[in-house]
Design brief:
The protein is an all-beta fold. The chain contains one helix and 18 strands.
Length: 209
């Protein structure tokens, strides 16, 4: 999403009886224009920026619950929460729930054009990446990526000091894993690490296999 889309969405004011944390089965109040009768509850999590160009790639809003709008009083909405996978807090946003089905089967393929990017985040907020971790890369549909594309992961070479000249030299990157793209957006994608022969890190490169 863009920040404007999320910032313009209705937001949770508080729960019934002044509660600041609520969950499935609770009633909550929100403020803003009703997006739909059935809404998703989302929380702003990460803002992605290309580490190479500085370009804004997208804002991640994670689904944490859903509810039904049961009443409107001006711009104050009353909701009954129907499900939650985290506690609902003041300030969480209401958006129209969009089902973006992820294919359960893929035909592995190489990108149709040369793609070179890097891993910019890993789900869970850790820094070390291993097999079956979900990662975000700074390349997307505009670069030719689509679900099912398999990418090589290159472990960045160490920085070493040349003992003769005193220069700092970066050693060559080496192939250290494979990942498959399962969700592609215009400027960025999510991938699953299928194989890792050594610990990977945010910042490691991805390229055609």
């Amino acid at each position: 999403m863009t920040p404007a889309e999320l910032n313009g969405a209705p937001y949770v004011l508080e729960g019934e009886d002044g509660r600041i944390i609520t969950g499935a089965g609770d009633r909550v109040y929100a403020r803003g224009d009703k997006p739909a009768d059935k809404v998703g509850i989302f929380r702003r999590t990460k803002e992605f920026v290309d580490p190479e160009s500085g370009e804004f790639l997208g804002l991640e809003a994670r689904s944490i619950g859903a509810g039904n709008v049961t009443a409107e009083n001006g711009d104050v909405l009353t909701l009954r929460l129907t499900k939650s996978n985290q506690e609902i807090r003041i300030g969480d946003r209401l958006l129209t729930s969009v089902n973006r089905p992820i294919a359960t089967s893929f035909v592995p393929s190489a990108p149709e054009q040369d793609v070179e990017g890097q891993m910019i985040a890993v789900d869970g907020g850790v820094s070390q990446i291993g097999q079956f971790d979900v990662v975000t890369i700074n390349r997307g549909e505009r670069d030719g990526l689509e679900p099912g594309n398999v990418m090589s992961v290159l472990k960045s070479g160490n920085m070493v000091r040349d003992p003769v000249t005193g220069e700092t030299i970066e050693l060559p990157s080496e192939r250290a894993g494979l990942m498959m793209i399962f969700q592609a957006y215009e400027k960025m994608s999510y991938g699953l690490v299928l194989q890792a022969t050594r610990p990977l890190s945010v910042g490691d490169k991805v390229t055609n296999p």
